[in-house]
Amino acid sequence: TRTSLGPNGMNKLVINHLDRTFVTADAATVCTELEVAHPAAKMMVLATKMQEQEMGDATNLVVTIAGELLNQAEELLRTGVHPSEIVSGYTNASKKALEVLDSLAV
User: Fold this and answer.
1) Is the dihedral of CA 14, 56, 63, 1 positive or negative?
2) SS3 sequence of 73-105
3) Is 63 within 8 Å of 48 (Cβ atoms)?
4) Which of 55, 68, 83, 105 is the most exposed place for a label (fewest CB within 10 A)?
């Protein structure tokens, strides 16, 4: 979805399981039309749907951030970091990010 971001974002051509064709730059549309089996991919689809319901926008950002978190986790796994340590690190980072956001609130 990175190529869909910004003023020069490109559209995607999606053909779903019913052979319906969609041209869109919206990650929510792409995610709802794809059939996913992998648990991590299902979580990304769920996160996209929740973002769409709560805010109505920024679904591409959700997919991009989630994808990058998964890429970084994969690198950590390759270097021998235990999955529970990765989850703990992401949990701590989330708490810290929320603290910083609260301190920035006006």
Assistant:
1) positive
2) HHHHHHCCCCHHHHHHHHHHHHHHHHHHHHHHC
3) yes
4) 105
